[in-house]
Amino acid sequence: MDKLIDKKQIELFNSVVEEAQKIVIVPHVNPDGDAIGAALGLWQALKNMKKHVEVVVPNDFPEFLQWINGSSGVLDFEKDKVKAQDIFDGADTLIVVDFNDFERAEHMSGTLLGFKGTRVMIDHHPQPVAKCELMFSYPEISSTCELIFRILSQAGKQQFIDVNSAEAIFTGMMTDTGNFSYNANTPDTYHIIGELLKKGIDKDKVHSNVYHTFSENRWRLIGHSLKEKMVILPEYNTGYISLSNEELAKFDFQPGDTEGLVNYPLMVKDIVFSVLFTEKDDLVKLSLRSKGEFSANQFAREHFNGGGHNNAAGGKTTLKIDEAVEKFRSLLPQYLSSLKS
Ligand code: 5GP
Ligand code: MN
Fold this sequence. Notes:
Layout: H1 7-19, E1 22-27, H2 33-48, E2 52-57, E3 75-76, H3 81-90, E4 93-97, H4 109-113, E5 118-123, E6 134-137, H5 144-154, H6 163-175, H7 187-198, H8 203-211, H9 216-229, E7 231-233, E8 238-243, H10 245-250, H11 263-266, E9 273-280, E10 283-290, H12 296-303, E11 307-308, E12 312-317, H13 321-331, H14 336-340
Parallel strand pairs: 1-2, 1-4, 2-3, 4-5, 5-6, 8-9
Antiparallel strand pairs: 7-8, 9-10, 10-12, 11-12
Helix pairs in contact: 2-5, 2-6, 5-6, 6-7, 6-8
The protein binds guanosine-5'-monophosphate (5GP) and manganese (II) ion (MN).
Residues 28, 32, 104, 287, 306-309, 312-316 line the site of guanosine-5'-monophosphate.
């Protein structure tokens, strides 16, 4: 395995961990498989080093991740603000995972900005914004979970990755690559999976826990989205789906239920850009995906107050959902040449 991580950063990581008395780990808002996998994989490894460590999430995470060891001890800032604030007040070390701008913690960003101790960032998104004493920013690595594995290994701490930590790490590597269908072309990724298998993970169980535990409502929502709501614009090689508050309520929407939905339009021949619009109270959230050169990140940054990776980004707007869709459609002509190339 290539030693990609900067040696000085590894040395600093080792001294930060050694000195830390109370560590708090934080993933981004609406945490996904990589964010939760990274938080809990690292949490378990640090616990195995006999460290005092807690995970605080900005808001709830999907049920299909709640089997991961340590989930039940995770504190939800939205639900238990007083207790969460206590943890921050008592901690001397903050580790943020899978994001690089404190704004991505939304209602928790003030707490992160005001944190007085040592701050560590472990992330794989481009263009970091947050300033931390130690910043692992590696956009070339496909998941934060893979990055965590690499850091612990290079730091000489691989023995602290037990089977629980390994399962959490595998979860994020799997979900951030669409079950190894994209951003998963380097031999090292599979070398690491080999190492995780040696730790005793049941890869098929992890896959089944994440991908084969849909509620009936979730499938019905997918059916409704594909049959009634998917719009394909062949002239722009683009597709989109929009879901209103009412539609989501009709299918008893739970966090995570729309995960993966944005990928369906991309499965249509020649489609290179896909957007999912979901209404959340008076905000509309956008999930953007692209194939090849077209930058979903740039589109989200320039027009929808967001960002992410080249081929997977997110954004938001206070427009009504129909207005958001209209704005999106009206922007497409200016991208015609890049969408068609
Ligand atoms: P998703 O569509 O799965 O919510 O997010 C796709 C990618 O875009 C993820 O890497 C996520 O971290 C990033 N992302 C999602 N929403 C936002 C946002 O509002 N701002 C920024 N900067 N990145 C986002
Ligand atoms: Mn990630």
